[in-house]
Amino acid sequence: MLKTETPDQQHAQLDQYPTAELVNTLVDDQLNAVNAVRAASARIAAAVTAAQPRMEAGGRLIYVGAGTSGRLGVLDSVELYPTFSWPHERSIALLAGGTDAMFVAVEGAEDDLVQGDADLRATNCGPNDVVLLLAASGGTPYVLGALRAARELGALTVGFANNPDAPVANEAEIGVTLDTGSEVISGSTRLKAGTSQKIALNSFSSALMVRLNKVYGNLMVDLKPTNAKLIRRAVRLTMIATGADEQAARAVLEQCDFHVKVAVVALTRQTDIGQARALLDQASGSVRRALAA
């Protein structure tokens, strides 16, 4: 029996716990998700290193999963645009059962290996793409279909699974095993298995974006200010990075569509927006190198 399906004998009387103890048990078990990801951090770092040149060559991130795993892939995918201005078309999520499965379970969709293959091929996947394959069990047919198609098409494949020696991890070019063990509620991988996948994806995509010069120091300088909160954040980040006051920061940001990177270079180098953009282009988007040029 898979570890994620094996009942946790420590909590065989879970339904009899007082409510406070029940909640504490569920919360405390989440700590095992952090430990599982930490144990796999070297594999996540290897995935970042392998993905970087493909992204620099214009490749895409393609997330594939079913159920909770698939929804977590969708979540990571859609957050890259507002956080790092990563283009929508370069972050794709495939969910077994299609878009409807984001909100309502589509029975049997995860068992369709052929559909996983077809959905992946429909993206026109190629050698510069990175395909992130997510399956708590490690053997979801839909995900395996996509994995095998991706390998055939020459993409980098990174497989995330919550059971040791799982096909999704073993067959991928880089396998990441998040060994979270039994769930407090047996088989409910939306608990710590899902938490571990969320942490792993956050860590992978965030580290990759840092390597792609989307961050200066630890400042989110490539955010897309799509609402009032993010506009305020853009102003604040520019002030922190440059020492400028709010009026000066906002004035420059208004000239460059609130692109923090450009404003930081313009203010620090005391140059115009066009020259700031040119310096960033010459530095492959690195604020640090643009300032040193």
Q: Name the overall outline.
A: globular
User: Can you tell me the CATH superfamily of the largest domain?
Assistant: Glucose-6-phosphate isomerase like protein, domain 1
What share of residues are in beta strands? Answer: 5-15%
- Derived from helix and strand composition plus strand pairing, the structural class reads alpha/beta
Distance between the amino and carboxyl termini? 59 Å
Q: Work out the helicity level.
A: 40-55%
The CATH class of the largest domain turns out to be: Alpha Beta
Strand order of the largest sheet: 2-1-3-4-5
Q: Can you tell me the CATH architecture of the largest domain?
A: 3-Layer(aba) Sandwich
Radius of gyration: 22 Å
How many helical elements? Answer: 13
Strands, count? 5
Number of structurally distinct domains: 2
* Residue runs with pLDDT of under 50 for 5 or more positions: none
Question: How would a crystallographer describe the biggest sheet?
Answer: 5 strands, parallel
Spell the H/E element sequence.
HHHEHEHEHEHEHHHHHH
Mean pLDDT: 96
CATH topology of the largest domain: Rossmann fold
